[in-house]
Design brief:
Number of domains: 1
Shape: globular
Number of strands: 5
């Protein structure tokens, strides 16, 4: 799988846990540092960010992608909307959680959330 990291840096232990949860090897990690300008359209900046991933139209639809989303919520949801448009479905995302009483603050991988499955289950409540 290809891990697209738009969030915090991931340590070797994070990557190991992700592979364990996904039951798949991470073949490649692509790192991005989204810094959006509040004076410009977030939709346009999300499009540029996704363009910078460097995947073809076919790859967006066929590669196994896992997303570590940006920590800024509006950037994250705007980027997810852009990715859904390119992929044709919602991607799975990594959820990190704080490690209790850690100094300095540290995070661990809590779960992989299959957003398409969440959407599909919610659809029956419509």
């Amino acid at each position: 799988m290809i891990l697209l990291n738009f969030g915090h840096p991931l340590t070797p232990s994070h990557r190991s846990r992700i592979e364990e949860l996904a039951d798949e090897t991470i073949a490649e990690v692509r790192e991005f540092k989204p810094q959006f300008d509040n004076e410009h359209s977030f939709a346009e900046q999300a499009q540029s960010l996704a363009d910078g991933v460097g995947l073809s139209t076919e790859a967006w639809q066929t590669e196994h992608l896992l997303i570590n989303p940006p920590t800024h919520s509006v950037i994250a949801v705007t980027l997810l909307a852009e990715l859904h448009g390119r992929m044709g479905y919602f991607p799975a995302v990594i959820r990190l959680k704080p490690v209790s009483n850690s100094m300095p603050p540290a995070f661990e991988v809590a779960e992989i959330v299959n957003l398409q499955a969440v959407r599909d289950v919610a659809r029956v409540r419509r």
